Amino acid sequence: MANNKLSGIGQAIAVVLLLAGLGLTLWNEYRTLKVSLMLKKAEKEFVEADASGAVDPACDGKLVHLTGVTRSAEPLRDSETGVEVDALLLKREVSYYQLVEYRNSQTQEITYYEDWTDNPLSSEDYEGFRKDVNFVYVRLSDRKDTCSTVSLGGYRLPARLIGWTRGYTDNLHIDVPGENLAELRARVQKASKDGRNVPVNVFKNTVYVGGNPSQPRIGDVKIEYSAVPHGTVSVLGKAQGDEIVQYGEGREYHILNIMEGKHKASEIFAEERENNRGGGWLVRIAGLVLLFIGLLGSLDLIKSLFRR
């Protein structure tokens, strides 16, 4: 009786998976086709907008393609270190020099080595070492700041669009203001085990907390900056007053794209089609997997129906 009950539950789950896979596959094919038709229609209707001067009222409410150089009203600023960069995006990545424990999963042998890590490590359970062998002079989290006041000619670009740019460079020469440097040094001295003054220096794109960057010691910290600088971009979106916004509605049926460099509208549409095909294949595979699993699980039910 119990076996029959479990078998019935298994068959019910299989049927649900089968229907879910079928529904997902049909929905995906419909979505892919609808986006494809939307892109084909949009490519015939878009207009070229001038990104070198004032807003063109004739473009209002239309899908526009524009290429120009980005600008912002003020630089991006890291409030904790005072670092300022005139850029679209500013990224801070922090590394800590720590004693790392490695356990061989096969032999269970434990070895220790010093290396840079993304986060401070606890050494309380390290064998043969003091519990506090690992420490850090200062703790800071990784962060990414997006410029919220970017303009392209007379148009303003949304922050989420700027967040899609990827041309990061670490070829920066940052500066830490005196007041921020003093505050940072005070935090470092407080964390120092013997209360000594630990050097805090700035090298190109890096704030280094510790004695010698070429010979790091446990506790040293690297604060590294990279940025997406202002430059030429090509944008495809809807002109709404002096803003560029999403063209179309919904998550799937819209156009809002940015490509770094000078690109024709046809290139951006080609990328949109590629994204549509790529996303379609991922969902298609997921749907087929559900269909396959559901079909296998439903074989007993199908056999019993045929017997009847």
Description:
This protein has 308 residues and is an alpha+beta fold. The chain has five helices and 17 strands. Strands 1, 2, 8, 9, 13, 14 and 17 form a seven-stranded mixed sheet that branches. A hairpin with a 2-residue loop joins strand 8 and strand 9 (155-157). The longest helix is centred in the first third of the chain and has 44 residues, at 2-45. It is flat. The model has no long low-confidence stretch (mean pLDDT 86).
Output the number of helix runs: 5
The structural class is alpha+beta
Residues in helices, as a percent range: 25-40%
| Shape, per Cα inertia axes | flat
In oligomeric terms, what are we looking at?
single chain
Total DSSP E strands: 17
Which percent range describes the beta-strand content? 25-35%
Mean pLDDT, to the nearest integer, reads 86
What is the H/E order?
HEEEEEEEEEHHEEEEEEEEHH
Keywords for this entry:
6-stranded antiparallel sheet, alpha+beta
Which SSEs are present, and which pair or pack?
Layout: H1 2-45, E1 47-48, E2 63-72, E3 76-77, E4 84-85, E5 87-103, E6 110-117, E7 143-146, E8 150-152, E9 155-157, H2 159-162, H3 178-191, E10 200-203, E11 206-209, E12 221-229, E13 232-240, E14 243-245, E15 247-249, E16 253-255, E17 257-260, H4 265-297, H5 299-307
Concise summary:
It is built from five helices and 17 strands. It is an alpha+beta fold and 308 residues long.
